[in-house]
Amino acid sequence: PRAIRRYGAAVEIGDSDYDIVDEDEKRRLREAVSACKLNRAMCHLKLKHYADCDKDCSDVLDIDPTSVKALFRQGKCYLALDKWDAAKESFRKVLELDDGNMEARRGLQSVRVSVCVKINQRIRVTGTTSRRWREAPDIFPHRAERLEDVRGHLS
Hints:
By secondary structure, this protein is mainly alpha-helical. 73% of the residues lie in helices and 0% in strands. The chain is built from 8 helices and no strands. The chain is elongated and about 65 Å long.
């Protein structure tokens, strides 16, 4: 919490750039504010303050849509909130910008595993999956009636 307060104070100071006239200085200040927001987003993520994490990442992405750190942290946040489509999209954008990013690859894998776990839970409770799970083409390339049908997609 202390780190969150300190990053917040830095962001407040940085957002009050009304007396800076030099465009280069304003750009550097925006970059510093973005770095503080990314650090604060990481703190929020660790503390499971997902709405605050998402807000900080979104603020950074509004300024720089190619921020790999913001996209990755937002993906982790969405994954924790079971927003799998959004998480997958964030991780895919990271990989478009940085193809060798192994953490983003693991994030995509985590999305697949999370979906499988939910499908497995659903099967145990009801004996079948709901229509929503069977029609999840954006997560899995085909419809899955049983958990065994989707295990091949985890490798």
